[in-house]
């Protein structure tokens, strides 16, 4: 297929172009023809900041070691080596904790699928040290959520009570809750869904039926099947605007494995992710020189995939950290529009309709006894308008 994907890359800074060259090259001969010029003009402090922001410094360190002859300042190589060493310790700690959690959950009859972290580092890169992770993501059946939360608390984890809800809207407005271990310094995200609403996705039992067993450690640790992992990774990366190149590098590594493309295309179509799968492939092709294959055509033929790939370049051109509020007003406005553009027509209707469902802010504006919470449905428009007046709440009834 034609790999010449048109995306706005002309004004990318030299340091980012150099980073992309290193991530794209498997051999020194694969480096972009102008990389020597980029090396000479590089602002190395900015290059380091970009590699850290995009969480790709382990891959850069390995690639620099493989290329050998690349002329890079000693202090830069030493810094990447130090970051790589620290990340290795972090990933080993996460691997050990993952093993303990897997055993504890299994002993308590709770089925668990690990979504990211050490299992996909080993699967995609062949070495846990070559991918960064700051937490463990676990997917469990919704019906076992209470037991899973109690188990984590018994293991010394503390729940981050950031989710507030009325009428159980947390079950679909959110998709995970967070626990932190104060002594180990490890964070666990406990998922009951892969993505927040209005996404469409397979149920746990279906994902479990296609699970794979990790060979990372001796005891059984399960994670997503290859096609399910592709769907999860592209939906997660798209939702975050592909603001970290690590997520695109994951896609490239996964595509280089043996995917069942007909099965994957059926899966993405069924759950309305075809355009997002196409977006990921187009970005990986243009930025990381992923070869496009004929089997991918059904995901690349629609205009929406191309539009979304172009939209994501907004994040590539900037070091956007969506997890560190407050966001700049320009970025916040753009991201809201971008998230809406990811949705299908049906999802957009569901998303707009969700604003009619009561929010926790409504219960703060007008506290009602629990038996009367159903009244928040007809009252919601009035409570929303009341808050817009700047007056926070009514008196308690």
From TrEMBL:
Pfam families given in the database record: NTP_transf_5
InterPro entries reported for this sequence: NTP_transf_5
Protein name: Nucleotidyltransferase family protein
Organism, as annotated: Paenibacillus arenilitoris
């Amino acid at each position: 297929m034609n790999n010449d994907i048109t995306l706005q890359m002309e004004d990318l800074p030299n340091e980012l172009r150099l980073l992309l060259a290193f991530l794209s090259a498997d051999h020194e001969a694969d480096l972009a023809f102008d990389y020597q010029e980029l090396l000479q003009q590089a602002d190395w402090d900015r290059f380091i900041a970009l590699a850290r922001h995009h969480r790709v410094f382990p891959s850069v360190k390995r690639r620099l070691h493989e290329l050998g002859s690349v002329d890079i300042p000693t202090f830069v190589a030493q810094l990447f080596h130090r970051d790589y060493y620290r990340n290795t310790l972090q990933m080993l700690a996460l691997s050990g904790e993952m093993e303990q959690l897997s055993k504890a959950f299994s002993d308590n009859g709770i089925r668990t699928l690990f979504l990211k972290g050490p299992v996909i580092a080993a699967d995609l890169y062949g070495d846990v040290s070559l991918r960064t992770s700051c937490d463990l993501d676990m997917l469990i059946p919704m019906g076992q959520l209470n037991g899973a939360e109690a188990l984590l608390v018994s293991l010394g984890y503390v729940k981050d009570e950031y989710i507030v809800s009325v009428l159980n809207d947390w079950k679909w407005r959110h998709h995970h809750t967070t626990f932190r271990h104060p002594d180990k310094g490890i964070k666990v995200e406990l998922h009951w869904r892969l993505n927040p609403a209005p996404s469409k996705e397979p149920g746990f039992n279906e994902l479990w039926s296609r699970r794979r067993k990790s060979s990372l450690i001796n005891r059984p640790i399960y994670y997503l099947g290859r096609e399910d992992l592709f769907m999860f990774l592209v939906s997660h990366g798209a939702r975050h605007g592909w603001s970290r190149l690590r997520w695109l590098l994951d896609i490239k590594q996964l595509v280089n494995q043996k995917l069942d493309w007909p099965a994957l295309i059926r899966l993405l179509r069924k759950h309305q992710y075809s355009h997002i799968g196409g977006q990921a492939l187009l970005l990986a092709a243009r930025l990381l020189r992923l070869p496009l294959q004929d089997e991918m055509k059904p995901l690349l033929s629609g205009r929406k995939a191309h539009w979304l790939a172009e939209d994501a370049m907004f994040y590539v051109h900037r070091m956007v950290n969506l997890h560190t509020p407050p966001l700049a007003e320009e970025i916040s406005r753009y991201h809201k529009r971008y998230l809406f553009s990811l949705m299908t027509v049906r999802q957009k209707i569901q998303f707009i309709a969700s604003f009619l469902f009561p929010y926790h802010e409504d219960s703060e504006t007008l506290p009602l006894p629990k038996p009367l919470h159903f009244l928040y449905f007809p009252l919601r428009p009035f409570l929303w308008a009341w808050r817009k007046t700047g007056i926070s709440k009514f008196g308690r009834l």
